[in-house]
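in:
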């Protein structure tokens, strides 16, 4: 990466630790009008990533006035979960911070050069992620997909319990437990092996 506009083409991803929480970050190209085909691909990838990101850190150059490209980016971010960041606080301020905050919410003022504002940015990220008071040892669900997987697993376990106490066969309860296990593995991104399933269901007379 360089400080020259238009040189970021691919999305660069990495994980960072924020307190006890690991976050996956993706550094994308900025928006700007260009006739460069390869650069346009990078911009399009960034626009697509905006649609899937859970939190967007939108960085603006505080040492210059907002460009048309900056304003286009602001329009794309409407309705998203965003932390606007005004960088280069070590230089004379020229960006319209009031306009940015009116469009995207409270901005964090930083200087990547001096490190100023780093603590404020960390706190803002924790608040937006809902982890400012999180006990990392307690475990949590990071997104809607994980929540739905957990709810599916819970519903399947409830059905298994009701089946056993309702006079139905262990086969029926076992199928529901298998469904619950599948949901939990989907939540964690793993795949339940036949060995694991057989070990769990070894206590049941499950017709498989």
């Amino acid at each position: 990466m360089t400080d020259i506009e238009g040189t970021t083409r691919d999305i660069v991803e990495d994980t960072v630790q924020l307190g006890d929480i690991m976050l996956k970050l993706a550094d994308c190209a900025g928006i700007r009008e260009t006739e460069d085909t390869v650069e346009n691909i990078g911009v399009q990838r960034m626009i697509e990533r905006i649609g899937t990101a859970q939190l967007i850190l939108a960085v603006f150059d505080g040492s210059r006035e907002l460009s048309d490209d900056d304003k286009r980016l602001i329009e794309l971010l409407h309705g998203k979960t965003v932390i606007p960041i005004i960088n280069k606080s070590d230089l004379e301020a020229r960006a319209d911070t009031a306009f940015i905050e009116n469009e995207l919410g409270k901005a964090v003022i930083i200087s990547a050069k001096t490190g100023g504002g780093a603590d404020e940015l960390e706190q803002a990220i924790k608040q937006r992620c809902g982890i400012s008071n999180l006990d990392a040892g307690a475990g949590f669900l990071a997104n809607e997909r994980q929540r739905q997987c957990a709810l599916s697993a819970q519903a399947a376990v409830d059905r298994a319990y009701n089946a056993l106490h309702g006079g139905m066969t262990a086969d029926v309860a076992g199928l529901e437990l298998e469904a619950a296990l599948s949901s939990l593995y989907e939540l964690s991104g793993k795949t339940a092996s036949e060995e694991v399933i057989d070990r769990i269901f070894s206590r049941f007379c499950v017709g498989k």
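note: Residues 79 and 198 are 47 Å apart (CA to CA).
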